[in-house]
Design a protein that fits this description.
Distance between the termini: 13 Å
Strand content: 15-25%
CATH class: Alpha Beta
Shape: globular
Structural class: alpha/beta
Number of strands: 3
Radius of gyration: 13 Å
Largest sheet: 3 strands, parallel
CATH architecture: Alpha-Beta Complex
CATH topology: Spore Coat Polysaccharide Biosynthesis Protein SpsA, Chain A
């Protein structure tokens, strides 16, 4: 996939019940723009199955990536702190 022109970073916490619908709505909003886009989800330590849903979305969608801060990162700062997800994102994120 060529590098995206637009990257949307979405922090998530316990969103398993709504993440599929949110993702579908976000893709539907981005596709008509004609821009190459990427959606980078950052799971902020959910324990409701959000991480599994995000992995499934990323596996099924070439313009989607998902990451989760490591325990070491979370120990240094709260998981929702800006920048926690960047180390796990694709190189151009």
């Amino acid at each position: 996939m060529p590098h995206p022109q637009l990257t949307v970073v979405v922090p998530c916490f316990d969103e398993s019940e709504v993440i599929d619908a949110f993702h579908a709505a976000l893709v539907a909003a981005l596709q008509p723009t004609g821009e190459r886009f990427e959606i980078c989800y950052v799971d902020d330590g959910s324990d409701d199955g959000t991480a599994e849903r995000l992995r499934a979305l990323a596996a099924a969608s070439p313009h989607t990536c998902a990451t989760r801060p490591s325990a070491a990162t979370s120990a240094r700062r709260p998981p929702s702190s800006p920048g926690c997800g960047w180390p796990g994102a694709r190189p151009w994120c």
